[in-house]
Design brief:
Blueprint lengths: L2 E4 L4 E3 L2 E2 L4 E4 L4 E3 L2 E2 L4 E4 L4 E3 L2 E2 L4 E4 L4 E3 L2 E2 L4 E4 L4 E7 L4 E4 L4 E7 L4 E4 L4 E7 L4 E4 L4 E3 L1 E3 L4 E4 L4 E7 L2 E4 L4 E7 L4 E4 L5 E3 L3 E5 L3 E7 L4 E5 L2 E7 L4 E4 L4 E2 L1 E4 L9 E4 L8 E3 L6 E4 L9 E5 L3 E6 L2 E7 L9 E4 L5 E4 L5 E6 L8 E6 L2 E7 L4 E5 L9 E7 L8 E6 L4 E7 L2 E6 L9 E7 L8 E6 L4 E7 L2 E6 L13 H11 L13 H15 L7 H17 L4
Parallel strand pairs: 1-4, 2-5, 3-6, 4-7, 5-8, 6-9, 7-10, 8-11, 9-12, 10-13, 11-14, 12-14, 13-15, 14-16, 15-17, 16-18, 17-19, 18-20, 18-21, 19-22, 20-23, 21-23, 22-24, 23-25, 24-26, 25-28, 26-29, 27-29, 28-30, 29-31, 30-32, 31-33, 31-34, 32-35, 34-36, 35-37, 36-40
Antiparallel strand pairs: 37-42, 38-39, 39-40, 41-42, 43-44, 44-45, 45-46, 47-48, 48-49, 49-50, 51-52, 52-53, 53-54
Length: 566
Amino acid sequence: MTAYIVSSGQVSSGLVLNAGDTETVLSGGIAFATTVNNGGSLIVSSAGRAQVTTINAGGSEIVTTGGRATSDTINNGGSLIVSSGGTALSETINNGGLLTVSSGGGVIEANVNAGGVEVVSSGGSVSLTQINSGGSLVVSAGGRAGTDYVNAGGVERVLSGGRELIVQVQGLLAVSAGGFVSDMTIYSGGAGYAGSGGHFFVSGGTATISAGGFVSSADIDAGSTVVLSGGGLDLAFIERSGTLDLQTGAIIGGVTFRNDFTGAGGLLRIEGAAMPSATISGFVAGDRIDLANIPFDPHGSAVMTPGDVLQVSEGGQTYSLNFYQAQSYGPFYLAPDSHGGTLITNIQPLRFVAPGDLDRDHRADLLFTSAGQAVAWLNGGNAFVQNTVPNASMGSEWSAYGTGDFNADGKADILWTNGSGQAAVWQMSGASLTGFGIPAGQMGGEWHVAGIGDFSGDGKADIFWVSNNGDPTIWQMSGPQLIGLTQPAGRPYGQRMVGRRHRRFHRRRHGGSALGVGRRRRSLVDDERWAARRVQRQSRPYGIGVACRRRGRHQRRRHRRSGLGR
């Protein structure tokens, strides 16, 4: 029973620790090529260093506060414990060997061979672990693992409360209820299984399941993507803004859009032309299905048929998707996706309204609407940024007409109208609603808005109304307030007067055209029309005698009266 102490500036080399022997490596000390046998113990602390240690059956090595171990080999029955503040690098765990990483400890790059086990407990962390055939990595509650590789025959178990951030799997990845996996790739021959009540929880990363791989269930969190590249996934739960990408040859058992706590916005992308037979449930407004390789057809349709089978008709082809029958669905709409494919939603596609400078940056922005909401595409110069105006919507009886600066703040506002002759103004600042009002006036259902402009010269947009009979009216506006009403003379959209007598009567009565705004003068277009008619007359055969010449004289007289012959 011998106690060895290696302190600052000292180096031990080739020491063999047997039953009862201990070696303590303190700050500045180095233990090199130590062999720890049954009952022996190596302690590395306080910035001490141990290198190329061999730990045999019954031997142990403890790396604690500030200590560091490198290139150790843990054999059958040997044990390496890395605890608070300790670090281990490039470790090898053989059959029967055990590496335990506890609170505050960290291990970087370990090879777990057949029969070897690495356990990460609360507060511990490991990375770059290679789990070979027969080896095992266990991540328990509070433990954390990342950038690990489960090779063929290897096993990684993520227990409740454990976290695996990045893992590539050709062996087996098993996740218990409450376990967490962020970013995973399942290769051919690999498999992922979730225990009772457990799921693969992919958060903020990408999980790829390749051909031949299989995962029992997966939660796809916001901003995450699971790519099913020819592999199999029994059940997928798509959270808000999560994406499930089904590529050609993918096998999927069921898809659930989960909107109970996180809100809608999940995306199911189907890459191939063959539709999955899996049942889709939980689909609500805001969720999307992207038929990425089915070109969008503006004349296409999406109709829910008996049995809740959605039939999508595009380009003369019909594609069927199975939906959960116990759920009610609203109408479905088709829209182009960003790559020319077909997007299926429960929300009406965007309708373009008008351009307008919503944020006073002297660049025209674009305004769209969808289901009573306004969507602003703000012009950043090189690109547009889409923003839905938050906390604001209009009922189905309202329609956005256009934009105008109703309060003279240099920012375009939005004018809404309904079929009853009412108007509403949204005062805007970028994509934010800063004010709202319905003017205290109503024109009636026979009137409609025909334009927006500053008719009073006060720098504020006004509203131009026209009735079904062509009568005009101008609302002078100040923000959403109606401050004046003008009815201009004339009827720009009135009934058309037909025949020479009616036109002659109106010219004599009003001293000009039928609108009373001055006599119509000959234009370049008139001259071109007159010249074309002369060519036509000159090219006619004159074999039909006097009647042809008389008709020509009548035509010339008629054109002189109308002003075209001058």
